[in-house]
What we know:
- This protein is an alpha/beta fold.
- It has a single domain, classed as CBS-domain (Roll), CATH 3.10.580.
- 39% of the residues lie in helices and 22% in strands.
- The chain has helices at residues 4-7, 21-31, 51-59, 87-97, 116-122, 125-136; strands at 9-10, 15-16, 35-39, 45-50, 81-82, 101-106, 109-115.
- It has a 4-stranded mixed beta sheet. A 3-stranded mixed beta sheet has the order 2-3-4.
- Helix 2 (21-31) links the parallel strand 2 and strand 3 (35-39).
- The two termini are 27 Å apart.
- The model has no long low-confidence stretch (mean pLDDT 87).
Amino acid sequence: MTTAREIMTEGADCIGAEETIIRAAEMMKELGVGALPICGTDNKLKGMLTDRDIVVKVLAAGKDPAQCKAGELAQGEAVTIGADDDAGEILRTMARHKVRRLPVIDGHDLVGMVAQADVARALPDTKVGELLESLSS
């Protein structure tokens, strides 16, 4: 069966937990992405930061993006997938946690990202349809 390693986008640039939201927005623009993993000074994944988080939790909340740190938006334990986990586990994890992107971990190392678009390219339409329905409800 297809694994996360086979369908992921390799590599994942992290925003440091101590870096500002302004820097995160700049990175998103430079990389052409809508989400970044948040990594601590220990190089461990602390969470995910999305463009929506920036708008809703920073700008709309009246916070200064030049002063707010990315780590302030990391909530709880990050939802991840193992590099060798199969497609079924990817679908279950995305649906269970209502997430469109999953950091891919190999041991303790962040090795890539699986996004909804990666799933759509790699899996049968029926499976993708079930995932979309789950994420939309």
